[in-house]
């Protein structure tokens, strides 16, 4: 097993290479498809059909955006958490899907990335549903771990032989510090997920935003201290800003 780290549009791409197949640890962004194609065909000198499985850890644009297109292109399978329904459900889901794409574009602009089409379907059609502790289909050396909190369906991917775990957006490294992601819809689940990863005692943790790291006990404790105790979401942030603006307006009058 060889783990390749590629620079994606707004996140790191992790492609796992085996002699007879390839595993993509997350569904990436739609803008990442050319990067993957170039690396697989030109660098690895392998056909795109060697891509066997894509895991979608959650439904945000940089984690699910390329999955459907890559399946059409390669014939690969898609696996995700065994959670009922769709993350982007109903009218509120439509608005949140659009908001998440706008946030992704904002991040890309801050990173001085060129404009790219990152549109993707809000509805994920999977081939496999993964429960906590399930081995990945065709990749028994990897196990799915339920690590919800960021959304209701986040999973991490634990590689048993190397004692490494890909946690997607469970934690983010910014300016040398480990912080919770935004949003955190389920704060209690989020804290439980952090404790779950800490108890695993991995040799290293692989981040979608921050690379492969080895946090100290103090850094884990700092992360736990920073973990929100109430939901930290788009709508809650907007409501708080509106509330502050109204209070300021009233005080001025």
From TrEMBL:
GO terms of molecular function: hydrolase activity
Top-level division of the source organism's lineage: Bacteria
Residue ranges of every copy of the Metallo-beta-lactamase domain listed in the record: 10-209
Biological process annotations from GO: antibiotic catabolic process
Keywords: Hydrolase
Bilayer-spanning residue ranges: none
InterPro entries with a match to the protein in the record: Metallo-B-lactamas, NDM-1-like, RibonucZ/Hydroxyglut_hydro
Family: Belongs to the metallo-beta-lactamase superfamily. Class-B beta-lactamase family.
Name of this chain's protein: Zn-dependent hydrolase
Organism the protein comes from: Photobacterium frigidiphilum
């Amino acid at each position: 097993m060889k783990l390749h780290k590629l620079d994606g549009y707004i996140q790191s791409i992790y492609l796992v290479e085996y002699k007879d197949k390839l595993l993509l640890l997350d569904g990436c962004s739609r803008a990442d498809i050319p990067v993957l194609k170039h690396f697989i065909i030109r660098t690895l000198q392998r056909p795109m059909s060697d891509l066997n499985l894509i895991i979608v850890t959650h439904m945000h644009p940089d984690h699910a955006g390329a999955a459907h297109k890559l399946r059409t292109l390669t014939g690969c399978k898609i696996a995700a958490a065994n959670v009922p329904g769709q993350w982007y459900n109903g009218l509120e889901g439509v608005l949140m899907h659009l908001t998440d794409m706008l946030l992704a574009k904002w991040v890309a602009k801050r990173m001085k990335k060129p404009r790219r089409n990152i549109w993707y379907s809000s509805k994920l059609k999977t081939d496999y549903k993964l429960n906590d502790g399930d081995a990945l289909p065709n990749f028994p050396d990897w196990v799915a771990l339920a690590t919800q909190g960021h959304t209701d369906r986040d999973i991490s991917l634990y590689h048993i032989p190397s004692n490494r775990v890909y946690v997607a957006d469970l934690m983010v490294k910014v300016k040398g510090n480990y912080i919770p992601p935004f949003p955190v819809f389920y704060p209690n689940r989020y804290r439980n997920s952090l404790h779950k990863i800490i108890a695993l005692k991995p040799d290293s943790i692989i981040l979608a935003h921050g690379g492969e790291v080895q946090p100290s006990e103090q850094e884990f404790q700092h992360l736990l201290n920073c973990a929100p105790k109430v939901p930290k979401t788009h709508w809650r942030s907007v409501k708080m800003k509106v509330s502050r603006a109204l209070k300021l307006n009233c005080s001025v009058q």
